[in-house]
Inverse folding.
């Protein structure tokens, strides 16, 4: 485990103990104190297990002592503080930020950083000059509802509500206030639900073929600068084939895909991480997904497996991480870089798809549907398209499993297009309205 991955007040993975020349076993490991300093310690024993247990006991004792020092420092700081009625809320927020960044509440490092950024960018400018005693239900309601009323995003108000509630719950737990007023703020007004934008199943093959044709032509064009590659067409094909998130796509490694020999008759990819960034570090790969720590196996078709084998065979860059979509220099590709390159492709394609007014094979007239402009499609559009297609073709439960959702409610709300046509129940209704035989469709014979 790298030093920056060890939390203050904890230790890294203890390697297997080694035998010395005198026959005794020695174990070594690293401990990070609350100041962020790395301390290396050794312990010996008559067996490897005894040496490792002795080292773990030492680390546990060091962590307990650090916890005592931390609580003592907090108590001293609390005695120096004025009464809560005189504390500026901005000072409270900064203390809370220091608490979560030190590992409090068990937040991931990236989550703690995002919470701190949002608190300083939105909450402190609006409420920082108020005293903690002035942060009541009305104050919180005015702040949160004001975000929505000012025409800003509902999601931004919800995110601020979560952070503000977290701060005030922490204050209540320390006895600075009697309770969390955010919990009594009325629900924020929800915006009208937008129609889920997807690429229709009739257009998927056409869209993919156009993107791949464009990408292959760009590879052949000689121009100054780095050589073009097939990151976008290959990435879009994998997004359309699985419905994975873009952060999961860019975290895929060659060891996560099984494409050389069918496993139980099929090929598959394994989703076990995502890319993200932390303050002071380049783009990193986290060994967890967005919602939980579970691993998700997704089956892929032989065509997608063949595409990945061809991509692996044509790999020319240095790739120490083994990433399928590596950035130049072998680092993890940044999310914004992939999105930017996709925007360039979709703008240059300028594709709009419509169903023809007349079916040439049957001569029947069809109602023209609303066009789907590729210029508005994002990487998440492919995920919604996969969810909608599986939900309408197979079942909503299978769509939720494909997308990695714990509850089908999330799939229905955000990833499925609202059904435009109800299932055909006319036969069932006719059987009771006109006493029609459901099996034959003819009027039922009267019984004597």
């Amino acid at each position: 485990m790298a030093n920056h991955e060890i939390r203050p007040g904890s230790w890294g993975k203890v390697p297997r103990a080694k035998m010395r020349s005198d026959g005794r076993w020695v174990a070594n490991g690293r401990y990070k104190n609350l100041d962020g300093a790395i301390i290396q310690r050794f312990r010996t024993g008559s067996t490897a297990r005894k040496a490792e247990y002795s080292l773990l006991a030492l680390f546990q004792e060091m962590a307990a002592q650090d916890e005592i020092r931390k609580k003592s420092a907090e108590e001293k700081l609390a005695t120096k503080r004025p009464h809560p009625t005189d504390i500026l809320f901005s000072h409270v927020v900064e203390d809370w930020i220091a608490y979560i960044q030190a590992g409090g509440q068990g937040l991931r490092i990236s989550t703690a950083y995002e919470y701190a950024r949002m608190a300083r960018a939105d909450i402190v400018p609006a409420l920082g000059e108020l005293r903690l005693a002035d942060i009541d239900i009305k104050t919180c309601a005015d702040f949160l509802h004001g975000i929505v009323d000012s025409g800003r995003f509902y999601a931004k108000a919800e995110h601020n509500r979560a952070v503000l509630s977290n701060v005030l719950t922490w204050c209540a737990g320390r006895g600075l206030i009697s309770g969390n007023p955010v919990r009594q703020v009325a629900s924020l007004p929800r915006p009208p639900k937008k129609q889920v934008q997807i690429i229709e199943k009739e257009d998927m093959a056409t869209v993919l073929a156009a993107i791949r044709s464009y990408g292959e032509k760009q590879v052949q064009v000689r121009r100054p600068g780095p050589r073009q590659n097939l990151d976008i067409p290959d990435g879009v094909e994998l997004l359309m084939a699985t419905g994975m998130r873009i952060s999961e796509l860019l975290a895929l490694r060659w060891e996560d895909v099984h494409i050389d020999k069918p496993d139980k008759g099929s090929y598959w990819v394994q989703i076990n991480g995502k890319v993200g960034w932390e303050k002071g570090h380049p783009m990193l790969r986290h060994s967890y997904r967005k919602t939980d720590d579970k691993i998700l196996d997704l089956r892929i078709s032989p065509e997608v497996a063949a595409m990945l084998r061809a991509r692996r065979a044509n790999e020319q860059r240095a790739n120490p991480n083994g990433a399928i979509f590596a950035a130049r220099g072998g680092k993890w590709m940044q999310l914004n870089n992939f999105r930017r390159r996709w925007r360039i492709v979709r703008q240059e394609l300028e594709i709009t798809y419509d169903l023809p007014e007349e079916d040439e094979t049957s001569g029947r007239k069809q109602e023209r549907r609303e066009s789907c402009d590729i210029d508005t499609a994002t990487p998440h559009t492919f995920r919604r398209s996969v969810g909608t297609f599986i939900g309408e073709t197979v079942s909503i439960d299978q769509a939720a499993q494909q997308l990695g959702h714990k509850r089908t409610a999330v799939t229905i709300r955000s990833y499925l297009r609202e059904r435009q046509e109800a299932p055909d129940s006319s036969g069932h209704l006719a059987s009771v309205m006109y006493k029609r035989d459901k099996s034959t469709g003819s009027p039922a014979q009267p019984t004597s």
DSSP finds 14 helices and eleven strands in the chain. Residues 358 and 364 are 6 Å apart (CA to CA).
